[in-house]
Structure formats: structure tokens, C-alpha cells
Design goal:
This protein is an all-alpha fold. It is built from 19 helices and no strands.
Length: about 475
């Protein structure tokens, strides 16, 4: 079940909200847990087993890690939990990838397992691992209530697309959280904005990408237009889902961290990754990069740490070599930037944005490619190395047809709109206008998105690979 679907918007969500607010406080987590399990099992009920067994091992081993703290058994239980979680993730997500590469290297024909990837397994696996490590580090107490822990791990708002919520951030909210009309209103507003990003921007940009991939008149300009469309598509799709998750969490009394802060305005690639998928970046920093030694080691070891983290980041996004190369590409860029480029970027000021956008454009072409040969062809074509014409009739037609969408997308990827609204809201003479327009905008977005969904518009789901 997707957030951007009629069953979710008009059947599942209203029923869950109604039941949640009707039951007493002591049953609210039970309602959320049951609703989340139903949500997760909607498409493939058999994958509930993976989630339930993950919750069970996280619960039991978390208690044992805390109970035996200070002894070798605490580390044994922590290692067992991490190995179990990563093994389950590896089996579901990477087994066929390893078999394919084994067959390629050995010349054998070991049959693929053809396992369908359980949606969201990468997200809840990382949440369980961070929970166990934080118990071991004594940053949090083990959760003795199985329903509360299950609610944290299976929570449907952020289950399929993040943000990756840490137990430490919502430990108190699982037991004591407040509800108010103001929070509900803020949650609905945030959810509606995210839904609009997904349906009205990301999905339509994906249509442009699909049209480009089906063209029989490729050209250099068309390749660049595709790259821009895909960059905007990924941003609005991912940040849209994060907005919806944050909004839904707010409705139910949870306050999740921000996951995107206008990354395309960054002046360096390092800054880009402080603004893009913040919860994932901070997870790898705290649970992999720092334990490896971070930057408090020799220069050679520091570079090794960066490459390990970024290779893992790439493979987290998908079980294919283009994702690994995508991660290593960023490791190379970030190493060069930190070692040599930073003084130059500081001197050239705003021109550094061009460098960042170029790097990100190249990276997302690699990210979207079906394989590395396709990625290389796309990149060669973009830079005029494939004997293609500069522009074609189809390129002119589609770019002209989608020009307003590109303009809205570019503006929407900057804080400009938000700044204008905030200034109007802060001004006493115009604040009333914002108060009137806000509910109208929310209702309008919901109606427009509903119309698109009823019409059967293109509604791809980017996170099957995660």
C-alpha cells in the first residue's frame, strides 16, 4: 500500500486515525502496531514473518545486551543481533547479486533465488541495529514492552521511505506524547505538501524520463533535459515521502527529524550530503564511519574509511554495481574536495553551486542506469562524445511541453517559496491572507492529487530497490 493511493488516503488512513483517537491512551500504541502490520502485509503478507522475527530478536537481544552490560556476553548478544539483521537483509536484498557475480567470476550457473525484496527492510533493519548499538553504548534503556518496541520498528508512516528514525529520538514519545488540533493541522499540512510533491511533480517528471527513454531521436540537449528531470524527480519523490511521513507522525504525536533541507542549493558536495537524506547520512556517520575511526586516524586510513562508508551507502540503495560505483564516485569527489578543492570553492563563492550541480547530475545518471555500460553511454552522450546531434525535434517538443513543470520544480527545490510564505505570515498586514489560503491550499492539493490518482496517472514507486 502506498501513501499516494486511493485505498490509503480514503480507506486505510481515515479508519486508523478514527480508531486511534477513539481508544484510550493505553491502547494507542497497540492500534499503531496492528495498523502498521496490516499496512506492511497489504501487498505480500508472507513478508510479515521477516518483520515479526526481526522485532522479536530485537526485543529479546536488546534486553540481554542491557542485562549483561560490562561482560563479554553483552558484546556477544550485540554481535548476534547485528549479524542476524544484516544476514536477513543480505538474503532478501543481495543474495541474487552475489550469485550473479559468483557465476560471472567462476563461469558456473548457480540458479538465482529470485527473492522479492520486502519493502522497507533496509529502513527497519537500520533502525533495529541502531537501537541495539545504543543500548550497548548505554545511550538508551532496553524497551521492556514488546508492543512499544514493535510500534517503533514497524511504524507505518516512516516504514517504506524513511526518515530512518532512531529509538533515542522517540523513546519518550512512545510512552508520553501529546495530541492537539494544532499538531494535527500541522501534520495534515505537511502530509498534503508531500503528497503534492509526489503526485504533481515527481510523478509527472517521471513521465518525462519515461518519454526520453522511449525516444528514437536522442540528442545532447535531450540527455541533459532527462538528467535534470531525473534529479528533480528523485528529490520530489524522496522528500515528498519524507514530508508525508513527518506529517503522519505529527498527527499521531510523534516528531520526526527533518530528512531534506533544500540540498540543491549547496555550495559543496559535503554540504549537499548534510542536506540530502539526513537520517541516512547521520546513521552511517555514527554507526560505521566513527567506529571505523572517522578522521582521527592516518590520512590513508581516513580515505579507506570514507571509501568503505560510501561503498556501503551505494549498496544500501540497491544490489547492483551501478549503486556501488555511485557510492565510490562520491567517495572520490568528497576526498578530492576535502583534500584540495575546498579553498578554491570558498574563493569562487556562488560559482561553486555550478560545480555541485554538475557533480550531482553525473551521480544521478549513474544512479538511474540499468548497468554501467548504459551509464557510460548516457554520460558520453551528455558531453557530446557519442556522435549525436545537439538537439532533435522530439527534444524540442517534450522540453516545450514540460517547460512549466521544470520551472516549478526548479523553484520548488529552493527555499524561495517557503521564504515568501514566512515573510507574509510574519507581516501583520498579510498574515490573514496566509491563514485563509493555507486550508484552501491543503484541500486543493488533496483534491487535485485525488483527481490524478482516479485518472490512473503514472504513479511509480521508487523504493522497491530499498
Amino acid at each position: 500500500m502506498l501513501f499516494s493511493s486511493i485505498p490509503f488516503l480514503y480507506y486505510y488512513l481515515p479508519i486508523v486515525i478514527l480508531v486511534y483517537f477513539l481508544v484510550p491512551k493505553s491502547l494507542k500504541n497497540s492500534v499503531l502496531l496492528l495498523a502498521s502490520l496490516f499496512f506492511y502485509g497489504w501487498g505480500e503478507p508472507k513478508y510479515l514473518f521477516f518483520m515479526l522475527i526481526s522485532i522479536a530478536q530485537g526485543y529479546v537481544l536488546g534486553i540481554l545486551i542491557e542485562k549483561y552490560h560490562g561482560s563479554k556476553w553483552s558484546k556477544v548478544f550485540l554481535t548476534t543481533s547485528i549479524v542476524f539483521s544484516l544476514s536477513l537483509l543480505g538474503y532478501c536484498k543481495y543474495a541474487d547479486f552475489f550469485i550473479e557475480n559468483f557465476n560471472y567470476v567462476t563461469g558456473l550457473s548457480v540458479p538465482l533465488l529470485k527473492i522479492a525484496l520486502p519493502i522497507g527492510i533496509s529502513f527497519y533493519t537500520f533502525q533495529i541495529i541502531s537501537y541495539e548499538i545504543d543500548i550497548y553504548r548505554q545511550n538508551v534503556k532496553a524497551q521492556k514492552n514488546l508492543i512499544n518496541l514493535g510500534t517503533y520498528i514497524a511504524m507505518f508512516p516512516q516504514l517504506i521511505a524513511g526518515p530512518i528514525v532512531r529509538y533515542a529520538d522517540i523513546e519518550k514519545q512512545l510512552v508520553e506524547r501529546t495530541h492537539s488540533l494544532a499538531d494535527c493541522a500541522a501534520g495534515v499540512r505537511r502530509f498534503s505538501i508531500g503528497l503534492g510533491k509526489k503526485i504533481l511533480l515527481a510523478n509527472i517528471l517521471a513521465e518525462f524520463v519515461a518519454e526520453f527513454k522511449g525516444t528514437d531521436e536522442p540528442s545532447v540537449i535531450f540527455f541533459w533535459a532527462y538528467a535534470l528531470a531525473y534529479m528533480l524527480h528523485v528529490y520530489f519523490d524522496f522528500s515528498g515521502y519524507s514530508d508525508m511521513a513527518i506529517g503522519l507522525g505529527r498527527i499521531f504525536g510523534f516528531k520526526y527529524m527533518e530528512n531534506f533541507r533544500y540540498p540543491y542549493i549547496s555550495a559543496t558536495v559535503s554540504e549537499f550530503w548534510r542536506r540530502w537524506h539526513i537520517s541516512l547520512g547521520s546513521w552511517f556517520r555514527d554507526y560505521l564511519y566513527i567506529p571505523l575511526g572517522g578522521n582521527r586516524v592516518s590520512k590513508a586510513r581516513h580515505m579507506f574509511n570514507i571509501f568503505i562508508v560510501w561503498a556501503a551507502t551505494g549498496l544500501w540503495h540497491g544490489a547492483a554495481w551501478n549503486f556501488a560505483i555511485w557510492g565510490i564516485f562520491f567517495a572520490v569527489v568528497l576526498t578530492i574536495e576535502k583534500q584540495w578543492l575546498m579553498p578554491i570553492l570558498q574563493k569562487i563563492g556562488r560559482l561553486s553551486h555550478i560545480y555541485v550541480l554538475l557533480v550531482i547530475t553525473v551521480s544521478f545518471v549513474i544512479f538511474d542506469a540499468s548497468d554501467m555500460s548504459s551509464a557510460l553511454y548516457y554520460l558520453k552522450s551528455m558531453f557530446g562524445l557519442s556522435a549525436l546531434p545537439l538537439i532533435s525535434e522530439q527534444a524540442v517538443y517534450y522540453i516545450t511541453s514540460y517547460k512549466m513543470l521544470f520551472l516549478i520544480g526548479i523553484i520548488g527545490a529552493t527555499p524561495l517559496s517557503k521564504s515568501v510564505v514566512q515573510k507574509l505570515a510574519a507581516n501583520k498586514s498579510t498574515a490573514w491572507l496566509i491563514n485563509v489560503l493555507e486550508p484552501v491550499m491543503v484541500v486543493g492539493l488533496l483534491l487535485l492529487c485525488t483527481a490524478y490518482l482516479i485518472d490512473g496517472s503514472f504513479n511509480p514507486f521508487l523504493y522497491f530497490r530499498f
